From TrEMBL:
Keywords on record: ATP synthesis, CF(0), Hydrogen ion transport, Ion transport, Membrane, Mitochondrion, Transmembrane, Transmembrane helix, Transport
Pfam families, per database record: ATP-synt_8
TM annotation in the entry: 6-24
GO biological process, one term: proton motive force-driven ATP synthesis
Matching InterPro entries: ATP8_metazoa, ATPase_protein_8
Protein name: ATP synthase complex subunit 8
Gene giving rise to this polypeptide: ATP8
Amino acid sequence: MPQLNPNPWFFIMITSWLVLTLVIQPKLLSFLTTNPPSNKTPTTTNTTPWTWPWT
């Protein structure tokens, strides 16, 4: 059964992952910029409790 022979497909998979990891990924990551960390302090909102009419 040729489906159980991993010889050609395993090599193709390993080669494609190596190309993706070593060639394509560094090129893509050089274009993507991450957001710089923000120094803003979080603001707290002052909420008022809801007045239920039946209590």
